[in-house]
Write a structure and sequence with these properties.
With 171 residues, the protein is an alpha+beta fold. It contains three helices and five strands.
C-alpha cells in the first residue's frame, strides 16, 4: 500500500465589493474585485473507481458557499459584517466552510483567494484539523466597526495633527 497523498484542486470566481475597515489607504474606500478562489483537497485513498473525491462535489460545495457573496457587498454579509473582508479572512472563512462539506478521509488542505492577478492569500492549517468557529479571533479590537465610529476616530486623529491658528484668550 502506498503512503502517498492525492491532491484535488478546483478553481472558480465571483464578483463582489468590499472596503477594509481601519485601513489607511485606497482600500478603505468601497471597491470591487473579480475574486478567484482555489480549493485544494487531500486524500490518502481512492475508491474502487480510482477517485479520491468527485470534482462535482467540490465544485458544487464551492458554488454553494460563494453564492452568498457573488455580486454582493461583503461588509454586509456575515461573518464580514463583524470582521474585515480581507483576502486573508476570506480565505480562512472559505477553508472552514468548505471543510464542512468534504467527506472523510479527504480534507481541505488549502484555500487560495486572489483579489487580482498579482495579489493572493492562502490559508491552510499545519495540523490539518478542522477549526471550531466562533469568529472571535477574526474580529477587530476596539470600538464596534461601522463607518460612523471610524469617521469619529479619524477626525480625532486628524485634529490632533493640526496646529491651532490662534489660542483663545482665557483671561
Amino acid at each position: 500500500m502506498s503512503s502517498g497523498l492525492y491532491t484535488l484542486t478546483v478553481r472558480t470566481s465571483f464578483a463582489a465589493a468590499h472596503l477594509l475597515r481601519e485601513y489607511d489607504g485606497n482600500c478603505e474606500r468601497l471597491h470591487g474585485h473579480n475574486w478567484q478562489v482555489e480549493v485544494a483537497v487531500e486524500s490518502p485513498t481512492v475508491d474502487e473507481r480510482g477517485i479520491a473525491l468527485d470534482f462535482r462535489i467540490m465544485k458544487t460545495s464551492l458554488h454553494d458557499v460563494l453564492s452568498r457573496f457573488d455580486h454582493r457587498y461583503l461588509n454586509e454579509i456575515p461573518p464580514f459584517d463583524g470582521m474585515n473582508p480581507s483576502s486573508e479572512n476570506l480565505a480562512r472563512h472559505l477553508y472552514e466552510e468548505m471543510g464542512k462539506s468534504v467527506p472523510a478521509p479527504a480534507r481541505v488542505s488549502r484555500v487560495t483567494v486572489w483579489e487580482s492577478d498579482d495579489a493572493r492569500a492562502d490559508y491552510s492549517r499545519r495540523d490539518g484539523s478542522s477549526p471550531v468557529i466562533d469568529g472571535s479571533d477574526f474580529r477587530l479590537p476596539g470600538l464596534p466597526i461601522d463607518r460612523d465610529s471610524r469617521r469619529w476616530r479619524n477626525s480625532l486623529r486628524d485634529r490632533s495633527r493640526r496646529v491651532p491658528l490662534h489660542r483663545p484668550d482665557t483671561s
